[in-house]
Here is the input.
Amino acid sequence: MVTGGAGYVGSVVAAHLLEAGHQVTVLDDLSTGHRAAVPEGTRFIEGRIQDLTSSSGADWLDASYDGVLHFAAFSQVGESVVNPEKYWRNNVGGTTELIAAMRDAGVRTLVFSSTAATYGEPLRTPIHEDAFPAPTNPYGASKLAVDHMISGECAAHGLAAVSLRYFNVAGAYGLYGERHDPESHLIPLVLQVAQGRREAISVFGDDYPTPDGTCVRDYIHVADLAEAHLLALGAARTGEHLICNLGNGNGFSVREVIETVRKVTGHPVPEVVAPRRGGDPAVLVASADRARTQLGWQPSRADLAGIVADAWAFAQKRENEA
Here is the structure.
């Protein structure tokens, strides 16, 4: 079962599972996901994870499932600051119900979509999994709370679980890509400027202690991310909770991303320097050594131009369909 499988990452993972020969059920309430993003060949259930323990969803999950990959969460940092209760209710409360339903059904393997936001503003980069978690917003805090919940479930009830903490996911995989509304991620926002859908891209601060003064982030291709999830299914061990970062270990600045979009698309991308945003660290880069050693994972699409090119192809396809 893929919860949140009508979303960006969930849909790409569902597609990879199908290609690997798995039978896949997508559970999504379509509050932020899209029915068109659910891969053909999956069983689709329109519903909430909170309903798994209710009479309406009692038969959605049973012992025939080998595991659950859990993506059903709200993920807008800004929204979580002004509406934290929404994030605690869904991300934490909903996962509580999911884990209870898994325990009742005898489904004992979980791969959880976690986030680098659990770390907050790191003292050192690259960031390792043993870095002290200090999330700076309710979104990151809700994901960290779920990680603690999973650890307890593994110790008490023998769950086999892997949490994957993503850095900046980007790119597209064939028919599956970013459809966020509103959009908050840098690469699709810059592509909207190239498409003429946005006048300019805002650069929030150009005086950071980085080579070009703009923030540096670690971008990972969504297909590399999906492959890590399939490896995590096989790596999960009864009673253990493995936490792995997923990133390329390379950082690209905001201005490098903008310039790459110009080269890939051949379109001008005007930029406007804006004040720094509070809480934006200068550099966020992952150490993914644990994923390499524990999962056998190796990202193969680390080239920024390739990531942008895949995202651009998907954005053009969507524009032509509109």
In short: The mean pLDDT is 95.
